[in-house]
Design brief:
This protein is α/β, with parallel strands linked by helices and 256 residues long. It is built from eight helices and seven strands. The termini are far apart.
């Protein structure tokens, strides 16, 4: 039996986009610390594979196929998880997409798609789990931002707007729900080796070398770099930490 401030035994976590990339890295960390996991995503096969991996390691896990930009679908996710696991303690809002175009080339449908997936989904999911967290006496919300929460990028206007919004939304939740013992924090990943950034490296000349040159850790991050921060922000270890935006970037954001 696990014990101590990082113990998540008996806790239940919902992770949107938890079937790959940074989300999967966080899922693995949360499960290892003892949490039961509900992976929410649109790719049923990827989610099923992630659940099978977790079950092989002894964790309780389910896959929920849902569009997290749809309010009714999100409400159904929260209802199902509460019904199957009996509670909801942790929410990781990780679902995200990017469309790489300069502002003058981005059309309104592309803008709306990115904002809905990256920002509106976090609002819908947070709102949906709030009653269960309040009833349980507290909870943890972890929102995934980006270096684009801090920096501008000519090729990511909608993505940057969504990720800047994530930080401010996190702070609003932290203020509003502190009295309910719900802590809300954001994680700001740097340049991480995922399918999403693989596309970026293919589309942006010289990106790989520029990232290495600016990152003190002298490497791209891996999804395994996110298990620890997820456990910290999901556990009692962070009960006095709320409204923060924590870079996990190998030092990228501190370099001039």
């Amino acid at each position: 039996m696990k014990s101590g401030p990082f113990n998540l035994s008996g806790k239940v976590a919902i992770v949107t986009g938890g079937n790959g990339g940074i989300g999967l890295g966080m899922v693995r960390g949360l499960a290892e610390a003892g949490a039961a996991i509900a992976i929410v995503g649109r790719n049923e096969a990827k989610s099923a594979a992630a659940v099978a991996e977790l079950e092989r390691s002894g964790a309780r896990a389910i896959s929920v196929v849902a569009d997290v930009t749809d309010k009714a679908a999100v409400a159904a996710v929260a209802e199902r998880v509460a019904r199957e696991f009996g509670r909801i303690d942790i929410l990781v809002n990780n679902a995200g997409i990017n469309i790489r175009k300069p502002p003058h080339a981005l059309d309104i449908a592309e803008w709306n798609s990115v904002i809905a997936t990256n920002l509106t989904s976090a609002f819908l999911c947070s709102q949906a789990v709030y009653p269960a967290m309040k009833a349980a006496g507290g909870g943890k919300i972890i929102n995934i931002g980006s270096m684009m929460s801090i920096f501008g990028a000519s090729f990511a206007p909608a993505y940057a707007a969504s990720k800047g919004g994530i930080v401010q939304f996190t702070r609003s939740c932290a203020c509003a729900w502190a009295a309910d013992n719900i802590q809300a924090n954001a994680v700001l990943p740097g340049w991480i080796d995922t399918d999403l950034t693989k596309q970026a490296r293919e589309q942006i000349d010289g990106l790989h070398d520029r990232v290495l040159a600016r990152t003190p850790a002298a490497r791209w991050g891996g999804i395994g770099d996110f298990g620890g921060i997820a456990v910290f922000l999901a556990s009692a270890a962070s009960d006095f930490v709320t409204g923060t935006a924590i870079p996990v970037d190998g030092g990228y954001s501190i370099m001039g």
